[in-house]
Design goal:
heterodimer, A: alpha+beta, 8-stranded mixed β-sheet, elongated, B: mainly beta, 1 helix, 10 strands, about 10% helix, globular
């Protein structure tokens, strides 16, 4: 009887200890962890170099995915500049980290247009043209808000207009799972530790 | 005792006054830089107002773009929105107005850069026109005008 009692005590205290350890574990990510862990939404398009792109093909690498457009005067160049800083901070880790900028403005952002824009930041960055179904699928899959402003030269013209858009940074792990999100205001220093965590596996 | 307090108060006020001289102390513009991409651009700068009166940046004029407007990028629950400020931006007395990436900025439509800087005329409600040369910042620009 005493033996059974002590076994019981031992089991209970071990479980309590495990629970305490589990609860006190510091959060693994600085950004917002995506729970439960699941495959990232599909992302298919054409890269600025004319090659077809599928997010699935990046398996084995960590990917930072975000959306924008090349006519964007402030936020998008800022985001791409942050990615440049990120690559510099990652050093060798940059080779295992893909930066994916996907345009939500298919009408103006042709593959050629992206080729004049994205590699100017870093030739290793992906700059995606998403057309028709690809763009529709991305908007739904990544739950994007995309709102086109009024063209400056009047409705229906292909002139200067803004696109309000989701500016979230999405972090995808080596297995293709969406793991962490950061707000548009996040800096390269904010993203860095979480990318390093994902690079370690 | 109350006299002593008054004296102390005067001293404190005197010190505070040191940094805020005559009311006509001129506005100045610092660290003006332009980030130009293919079809759009942004100018960032800091307006320092050492004077005792608030002012307002009403508009920006330039020959180096189709248009220059005062805008603000705002994070609306993860959605980046472009907010126009046709009434301009306030410059507080003894304070500063900061235009920076991801926030308030001068938005340029179809910039036509000539050389290493962009010439702008900032129009203030009280201070009038202030000429500024914004140096082109290549670290944030992906588009190399006339480059490779």
């Amino acid at each position: 009887m005493p033996t059974r009692w002590s076994t019981y005590l031992f089991t209970v205290s071990t479980l309590a200890l495990l629970a305490a350890v589990a609860c006190s574990r510091p959060p693994r990510f600085r950004g917002t962890a995506v729970e439960p862990v699941a495959a990232a939404p599909a992302l298919t398009g054409v890269n600025w170099d004319g090659q077809p792109f599928r997010l699935d093909d990046l398996r084995g690498k960590v990917a930072v995915v975000f959306f924008g457009y090349t006519y964007c005067p402030d936020v998008c160049p800022f985001a791409l500049a942050k990615m440049k800083q990120l690559y510099a901070a990652l050093g060798a880790g940059a080779e295992d980290t893909a930066v994916v900028f996907a345009s939500v403005d298919a009408r103006r952002d042709s593959v050629d247009k992206l080729a004049q824009y994205v590699p100017g930041f870093d030739r290793r960055f992906y700059g995606l043209h998403l057309d028709g179904d690809d763009l529709a699928a991305a908007r739904e899959g990544w739950d994007l808000t995309v709102q086109f402003g009024q063209p400056k030269d009047g409705p229906g013209t292909d002139s200067f207009y803004y696109v309000d858009h989701t500016g979230t940074f999405f972090l995808v792990d080596r297995d293709g799972n969406l793991r962490v999100t950061f707000p548009p205001t996040a800096s390269a220093d904010d993203l860095l530790p979480d990318i390093e965590t994902l690079l370690r596996g | 005792m109350p006299r002593l307090l008054t004296l102390a108060l005067l001293l404190v006020l005197g010190c505070a006054g040191d940094g805020a001289p005559a009311a006509d102390a001129a506005l100045r513009v610092e660290s003006a830089r332009a980030v130009l991409t293919a079809d759009a651009g942004a100018v960032y700068l800091t307006v320092v107002n050492p004077g005792a009166h608030a002012d307002r940046l009403l508009a920006v004029e330039t020959e180096a773009a189709d248009a220059a407007e005062l805008h603000e990028s705002r994070d609306d629950g993860g959605v980046m929105r472009m907010v126009a400020h046709p009434q301009g931006f306030a410059v507080p007395a003894g304070g500063r107005l900061i235009l920076e990436p991801g926030g308030k900025h001068v938005m340029l439509v179809r910039p036509r850069p000539a050389g290493r800087s962009v010439s702008l005329r900032l129009i203030f409600e009280h201070a009038g026109a202030v000429e500024v040369a914004a140096a082109r910042d290549e670290t944030m620009a992906g588009m190399a005008h006339g480059g490779h």
